[in-house]
Amino acid sequence: MPELPIEPLAEPLWPLLNKFYRSHNSPMKALKGGRLWVARDGEIVAGLCLTPVVGGQFLTGVFVAPDYRGHGLATRLILRAVAEVEGTVWLLCHPDLEGLYRRMGFTQDTALPQSLSERLVRYKRNKPMIAMGLSPRG
Description:
single chain; alpha+beta; Aminopeptidase; six-stranded mixed β-sheet
């Protein structure tokens, strides 16, 4: 698979990422106030959203189209998006994804901001969920 371009998505184009999520029956949404990143192969084939929170950024909406999975695209997308982030990057994920994120340097040894702690408690009522963080390299 050729190396696909990864770039921030300009704000006027945000509806395209939501359209991509919907086209794959994903409940994910681009969050207002966030910074969206996408990989394209003509059209969007992967995306994510980084939203500011106290002390860093909240990573959500990581989704790769099924035909593009298994080639490291999610890893490239995430690492490119978080490369310029100041502060910690946090995410909430299913425990099955821990290995994927751990290989990128995320750990469960992280202190969540209150807003994300509350969100984690809500999410865990309905499904297994863990919190992970990627501390700034320094």
